[in-house]
Design a protein that fits this description.
By secondary structure, the protein is α+β, with helices and mostly antiparallel strands. Helix content is about 55%, strand content about 25%. It is built from 2 helices and 3 strands. It has a 3-stranded antiparallel beta sheet with strand order 1-2-3, covered by helices on one side.
Length: about 90
């Protein structure tokens, strides 16, 4: 399972929060996102965080992150298509 989990110590309705991107229960990376931004933006930020970790180099971690990045892009495209249907 791919999950984006709000791990902020002070969860609230708006503002900048810290998130953890997880594959099953394995944390891939952490990143920040403002809750008031749209869902596609959090997916973009998660994909960016995965790419940043990929550039650092561990081959096993890179394979996991590549899978996660591909899944995030697939979901982002799906959300875009849903938004197109709404308009």
């Amino acid at each position: 399972m791919l999950g984006i989990v709000n791990i902020d110590e002070n969860p609230r309705q708006s503002g900048r929060h810290e998130y953890s991107l997880r594959l099953n229960n394995l944390e891939i990376c952490k990143f920040h996102h403002k809750r008031e931004e749209c869902m596609s933006r959090i997916l973009d930020r998660a994909a960016d965080a995965v790419r940043a970790v990929e550039r650092r180099g561990d081959p096993v971690q890179m394979a996991k992150e590549r899978f996660v990045a591909e899944e995030l892009m697939r979901v982002t495209k799906m959300i875009g298509r849903i938004n197109d249907l709404r308009t």
